[in-house]
From TrEMBL:
It comes from Alicyclobacillus macrosporangiidus. Its main location: cytoplasm. The modification N6-(pyridoxal phosphate)lysine is found at residue 277. Pathway: Porphyrin-containing compound metabolism; protoporphyrin-IX biosynthesis; 5-aminolevulinate from L-glutamyl-tRNA(Glu): step 2/2. One of its GO terms (molecular function) is transaminase activity. NCBIfam families: hemL, PRK00062.1, PRK12389.1. This is Glutamate-1-semialdehyde 2,1-aminomutase.
């Protein structure tokens, strides 16, 4: 990479591949966030291979990777233990459609790490995991409504593609074409970190609420932790008071900050959990689970249906197990926290040097650089940050071989394989980028 200017970088092959992609893949990408639409345009970079903290594009440019594939790659790319598990999995065939020993061991490992997972089911994505917890909550309570928090992302099932209504106690409106008003009408959206708005919504809708769904530490409008240490405990207690279940969407947070959930960090217990990303070690996965009495409403034991041809596939189980084995060592998390702190301090110092107004929200090795001087505690605060300046930083870093997610609402993720040298190189690129932006 090149922290001095990066004008030498050539993207010819990326452009050619992206032209071919545009002709066959809708929008040229298999997930909208991969386009550069949120950073003022430009051609997405087409990657070719990856190792450790870095990936290399089809033109041979190398990048220090802070995207981490939107979260799963807590061990970085091609971690030897994960690759070994994946290779071993291919020797034994790849899919049986029957129970396997791997899924049992993996479920036992998850439950040992997260005792609240009294019963678990494996699925193939975070979307599926969250979608199913909602169905389970409705089935178990006999109620219909769901309360979620503005700006949280819970995958793309219909019920969670709903935006806030016009007031804290109003019902939601569809956030995507194809989501019906009837579905949106069963979803209530309130601001995160705001117990008053939450209470207001519970007062109006409490009796009809099947579940409250929350990212305990938000990752989807940037990293935003609970402001009050008792926030999550209060969210749970007040939901239970009206007879609603609580679902923690820990698709990003589980095993991101320590060997377990965000719930454990705050000493609280949700009724149901949705997991994904990290637990697959980079292969497709999702999982949901929680209280045994609630989970027992799922087929074959109960009336709530959920199934999957690929669910618990041996490769994902084995790479997931390998990933968790590595994460068992607390030194891994200390390392990411130390590098995260170094980046936070360095980026803040650099911004100050160049007169660029930013604030950083960081939890361990995950953080978001917001362009603005206000503290970001909810979605409105994240929306109020400067997207143009973020886009400028994104492109300036890209040209210097530092790859961050192409959206002001995402996080930088440090991995176990990032090094002090990576951080130094990144901070030099950040400093040059801020200098360019201030000029
Ligand atoms: N829940 C959260 C908190 C997420 O961040 C995501 C994905 O970014 C999902 C659910 C959906 O997961 P997937 O993309 O695996 O379907």
């Amino acid at each position: 990479s090149n922290s001095e200017g990066g004008e030498a970088m050539d993207f010819t092959q990326s452009h050619l591949w992206q032209q071919r992609a545009d002709a066959v893949i809708l929008g040229g990408v298999n997930s909208p966030s991969r386009s550069f639409k949120s950073v003022g345009g430009g051609t997405p970079v087409v990657m070719a291979r990856a190792q450790g903290s870095r990936f290399v594009d089809v033109d041979g440019n190398t990048y220090i990777d802070y995207l981490a594939a939107y979260g799963p790659l807590v061990l970085g790319h091609a971690h030897p233990r994960v690759m070994e598990a994946l290779r071993a999995a291919t020797y034994d065939g790849i899919l049986y459609g029957t129970p396997t020993t791997w899924e049992v061991e993996f479920a036992e490992t998850l439950r040992a790490a997260i005792p609240d997972l009294e019963r678990v089911r494996f699925v193939n994505s975070g979307t599926e995991a969250v979608m199913t917890t909602i169905r389970v909550a409705r089935g178990a309570t006999g109620r219909n409504k769901i309360l979620k928090f503005a700006g949280c992302y819970h995958g793309h099932s219909d019920a969670v593609l709903v935006a806030a209504g016009s007031g804290p106690s109003s019902i939601g409106v569809p956030d995507s074409a194809g989501v019906t008003r009837a579905i949106a009408g069963e979803v209530i959206t309130v601001p995160y970190n705001d117990l008053e708005a939450y209470d207001e919504a519970l007062a109006v809708h409490g009796e009809d609420l099947a579940a409250v769904l929350v990212e305990p530490i938000v990752g989807n409008f940037g990293i935003v932790p609970p402001e009050r240490p008792d926030y999550l405990a209060e969210v749970i207690a007040r939901a239970h008071r009206v007879g609603a279940l609580v679902i923690f969407d820990e698709v990003i947070t589980a095993f991101r900050f320590h060997y377990g959930t965000a719930a454990q960090l705050y000493g609280v217990h949700a009724d149901l959990y949705a997991l994904g990303k990290i637990i697959g070690g980079g292969l497709p996965i999702g999982a949901y689970g929680g209280r045994r009495d609630v989970m027992e409403s799922v087929a074959p034991l109960g009336p709530v249906y959920q199934a999957g041809t690929m669910a618990g596939n041996p490769a994902s189980m084995r790479t997931g197990l390998a990933c968790l084995e590595v994460l068992r060592d607390p030194a891994v998390y200390r390392h990411m926290d130390r590098l995260g702190a170094a980046l936070e301090q360095g980026i803040l110092a650099s911004a100050q040097r160049h007169g660029v107004a930013i604030t950083i929200n960081r939890v361990g090795g995950a953080f978001t650089v917001f362009f603005g001087s206000h503290r970001v505690r909810d979605y409105a605060g994240a929306q109020a940050t400067d997207g143009r300046r973020f886009a400028a930083l994104f492109h300036a870093l890209l040209r210097r071989g530092v790859f961050i997610a192409p959206s002001k609402y995402e996080a930088w993720f440090v991995s176990a394989q990032h090094t002090d040298a990576d951080i130094e190189e990144t901070l030099a690129a950040v400093d040059a980028s801020f200098a360019e932006m201030a000029a």
